[in-house]
Amino acid sequence: MDYTRFMTDVTKNRKATILRDLFNLQLQGGEDWIYVIGGLPNESLFPLTEGQFTLADRRKIFIDESTMQECLQYGPSSGYPPLVKQLEAMVKKYHDPPRWSERKLLTINGTQDGLANSIAMMMNEGDFVLMENPSYSAFISLIQPYSPRILVLETDERGLIPSSLRAVLSRWNPEEMSKAQKDVPKFLYTNPTGNNPTGTVWPTERRKEIYSICCEYNLIIIEDDPYYFQQYTSEEYPPSFLRLDTECRVIRLDSFSKIIGGGLRTGFATGPEPLIEKLIFYQQMSSQHVSNLSQITLHQILNTWGEDGFERHTEKVKEFYWKKRDAVIACAEKHLSELCEWTVPDGGLFIWMKVKNVPDVWDMIMKRAAAKKVVMVPGNAFMPDSSMPCPYIRVAFSHNPTEKINEAFRRFAEMIREEISINKSTKG
User: Fold this and answer.
1) Is the pLDDT of residue 39 over 80?
2) Is pLDDT of 27 > 70?
3) What is the pLDDT confidence band of residue 23, given thresholds at 50, 70 and 90?
4) CA gap 329, 422 in Å, rounded
5) CB neighbours of 88 closer than 8 A, spacing ≥ 6?
6) Which residues of 310-343 are buried (b: 16+ CB within 10 A; e: fewer)?
7) Percent of the chain, pLDDT > 90?
8) CB 394 within 8 A of CB 200
9) Closest by CA position to 264, among listed 288, 296, 228
10) Are 99 and 242 in contact (CB under 8 A)?
């Protein structure tokens, strides 16, 4: 594939910094080499010399003096090498992508950082952008400064509708579009597992059909998958787009935020080597690299657990949120069954609700919810055009105790009834 088609002119001109290249050379050299290249702080002045963490099972992780120096010193932009090796093994285990030798892995400051840099790498001002309705609100915020020409894709309770994608793309000839350098969409952004905001998990056949369409029209797929381990089923998970990627056109973004801790800000991107190399250049110019303290801590956690321990932990996380989802749905049925409609989410941490008889929830949430001391996210934030009326809200069920969410739904029911009354009086 000619990956330059997907890059902006700025991206094409991005090169590795000389100092970063020399630093990588330093990592490969022997003990008898002498380096006087970078402004590395002297380790003798680091205020931390050792550290210890206690896991939930009471096992200890100890960071000795030499490892602490690695934690506090600069590191390679592509990631802490021992962690990168662990993550590569994880990708092979869970996704087994074809053509592995043509791919590369990069640690990132959470999937949000990887998404922002991926968009910067590919988007020019005024580009066509394929956008699901609804779509992840941060994705909408990321593309807005580019004044995009938005192509709206319809969804249902099973995710993106393949026929909608094909219909939107039908304005172009596939052969011409596959070679075009401008005035065509370049990528499809997807959140196919535990979708934010809808909670859908796209089924296997739909994923295969969408991947086939993207191949036909030569699109890159950005697969944002932070909820991969929050799929509420005992059956085999549907394959990721990375697993289906026989043509090396998927950039997959993975996160530890939902299974270990969001504050670590450590995720990873896996994709075609030419595109990941460009993402490394973007990271060199922004954060330089993910915090070594976070990367090494994560490496030590994974080392201590081993593969079996990691799977036990992710299963525990899934079971916790699965039970939480069911309890919260019961609360919704108790208070909102006559006032709202929803589909029980198959994954993720959110419930997507349609409020009956309230064509637009914006004023109800943004202006009047404070009186009830309850805050939810208006669905407008997830729409291609947030100014249009929207009857949906997003409820997060992950953090609050079930009894608090029960009370929130009770207050919300009162708020909806009052809103319906207000709308009737206004019309009258």
Assistant:
1) no
2) no
3) low
4) 27
5) 105
6) beebbeeebeebbebbeebeebbeebbeebbebe
7) 84
8) no
9) 296
10) no
Task: Convert the pLDDT of each residue in 44-58 to its tens digit.
Answer: 999 999 999 999 999
Give yes or no for a contact between 83 and 294, defined as CB atoms under 8 angstroms apart: no
Sheet arrangement for strand 377-378 = 340-342, 350-355, 392-396, 377-378
Q: What is the pLDDT of residue 24?
A: 65
Statement: residue 40 has pLDDT above 90: no
Neighbouring C-beta atoms of residue 399, cutoff 10 Å: 9
- Cβ burial, residue 388 (10 Å; 0-12/13-18/19+): exposed
3-state DSSP of the chain: CCHHHHCCHHHHHCCCCHHHHHHHHHHHCCCCCCCCCCCCCCHHHCCCCCEEEECCCCCEEEECHHHHHHHHCCCCCCCCHHHHHHHHHHHHHHCCCCCHHHEEEEEECHHHHHHHHHHHHHCCCCCEEEEEECCCHHHHHHHHHHCCEEEEEEEECCEECHHHHHHHHCCCCHHHHHHCCCCCCCEEEECCECCCCCCCECCHHHHHHHHHHHHHCCCEEEEECCCCCCECCCCCCCCCHHHHCCCCCEEEEEECHHHHHHHHCCEEEEEEHHHHHHHHHHHHHCCCCCCHHHHHHHHHHHHHHHHHHHHHHHHHHHHHHHHHHHHHHHHHHHHHCCCEEECCCCECCEEEEEECCCCCCHHHHHHHHHHHCCCCEEHHHHCCCCCCCCCEEEEECCCCCHHHHHHHHHHHHHHHHHHHHHHHHHHC
Which pLDDT score, from 0 to 100, does residue 426 have?
72
Q: Residues 289, 226, 163, 119: what is their CA dihedral angle, to the nearest 10 degrees?
A: -20
User: What are 242-290's pLDDT values in tens digits?
Assistant: 999 999 999 999 999 999 999 999 999 999 999 999 999 999 888 889 9
Write down the pLDDT at residue 20. 62
- C-alpha closest to that of 221 among 240, 204, 196: 240
Which amino acid belongs to residue 68?
A: M
Q: How confident is the model over 385-415, as pLDDT tens digits?
A: 999 999 999 999 999 999 999 999 999 999 9
pLDDT of residue 19: 65
